[in-house]
Fold:
Amino acid sequence: MFHVEGTNKNGGVSIGIGKHLKGSKVETNLQNTLVMDIIGLSEPLRVI
Structure:
């Protein structure tokens, strides 16, 4: 589970990924935005 504090009504953004996958957070300066690279699928995936 990855979380970034934010200013929206929910207090930020969260992304959960499966245990069989690897995820890495991509640094960004955008508020209320979480960017993740997910590895372990047939091809890499970037979730914004």
Observations:
- The CA atoms of residues 3 and 14 lie 4 Å apart.
- DSSP finds no helices and five strands in the chain.
- The chain has a mean pLDDT of 91.
